[in-house]
UniProtKB/TrEMBL annotation:
The protein's name: Uncharacterized protein
Compositional bias of kind Pro residues: 296-308
Region of interest (Disordered), ranges: 290-331
Taxonomy, superkingdom: Bacteria
Species of origin: Planotetraspora silvatica
């Protein structure tokens, strides 16, 4: 992801996190809800404490739990977009031109709808501002004139698009742009996101769903010859940190297939409730989603890899059906 283009990186915080990581162990025993312990234990887990204190220092817990925080790019390509070689290069490089009068009027506010039925109404960006964000050049992908194509916008209308947020999938208002000679719709989210911190690393846990009692279902990614060795959780009054150990079955993995989806569950000392669930690897909250994996994989339950399913490239995620899009407004 090009985080600077997506527009939700908090500038000036990276250096402070280095200091925070050094001091987090000292801070872990201080403050209400600060200590993180595994169920049935009183020992503070130091790596989990670093993750927890880093997150607490951002002050974003309330926004992630109840606000609008996108977890993907704000420019969304429709499944009907058909690139040519040059037009694809133009999109990657951010080469755009405007040959249309963009709508000058639009509703002042728009509604966001989440999978759990909650909604939020926020101010909308005008079409011109959405186009400026979408058409920003990519500083990491440059090409000389003639080497790339040029995407020419010939119209825009207000519609909706589904994106992943800190609270799971949501339907959000979006400006939908038509491009000359490129079939399909280019959507740009029409609501400005809240700033969020960059990740510590790649996420291990891709989604969670509360189970019965104190259990929480977890979805994760693995390779074709990997298995789930261990699942750990560390709890505090305000959050829970989950850590998965996924690796080769016999210590060596010769397979090449990646992106397989697995599911497991963790049992907490008390129900998750309103507490934020943090991924130990990325340091960021795990998004809620309906987990459709065919079987739950207990750690090291057998020498074979866990039951997994390969996502079908042309199929919509299972939870998309629960969030129908509304008919776009006329041009």
């Amino acid at each position: 992801m090009n985080q600077s283009k997506a527009g939700y990186v908090v500038e000036g915080m990276r250096a402070s996190w280095l200091v925070l990581a050094v001091g987090a162990i000292v801070m872990a025993g201080c403050g209400q809800g600060a200590a993180l312990v595994a169920p049935g234990s009183t020992d503070v887990d130091e790596p989990a404490a670093v993750v927890a204190e880093r997150w607490r220092a951002t002050g974003l817990s309330e926004e992630w739990a109840r606000g609008f925080v996108p977890r993907e790019e704000l420019t969304v390509l429709g499944k009907d977009v058909q690139f040519t070689g040059l037009s694809k290069l133009a999109f990657v490089a951010g080469r755009w031109e405007l040959h249309a009068d963009l709508p000058g009027s639009a509703p002042s506010h728009g509604e966001i709808r989440w999978l759990d039925g909650t909604t939020m109404t926020l101010p909308l960006l005008p079409a011109s501002a959405a186009y400026e964000e979408m058409s920003a050049p990519n500083p990491h992908q440059k090409c000389a004139p003639g080497e790339c194509g040029l995407l020419t916008v010939i119209g825009a209308r207000l519609g909706e698009v589904q994106i992943q947020t800190s609270r799971g999938p949501a339907i959000v208002p979006a400006w939908q742009f038509s491009v000359r000679d490129v079939p399909g719709t280019f959507s740009r989210v029409a609501i400005a996101p809240t700033a969020t911190p960059p990740a510590l690393g790649a996420a291990e846990v891709n989604g969670y769903q509360p189970g019965e009692g104190t259990t929480v279902r977890l979805e994760y990614m693995s390779g074709s010859c990997e298995t789930l060795h261990r699942v750990r959780s560390f709890e505090a009054d305000d959050l829970v940190v989950v850590d998965l150990d996924v690796g080769a079955v016999d210590g060596v993995c010769s397979g090449t297939a990646l992106g397989l989806v697995g599911a497991t569950q963790v049992t907490l000392a008390k129900p998750l409730g309103d507490r934020i669930l943090l991924d130990a690897s990325s340091g960021l909250p795990v998004p809620y989603r309906v987990i459709q994996s065919p079987a739950m994989s207990p750690p090291d339950s057998s020498p074979s890899p866990p039951t997994v399913e390969s996502p079908t490239p042309d199929a919509s995620p299972p939870d998309h059906a629960s969030l129908p899009l509304r008919t776009p407004s006329p041009t």
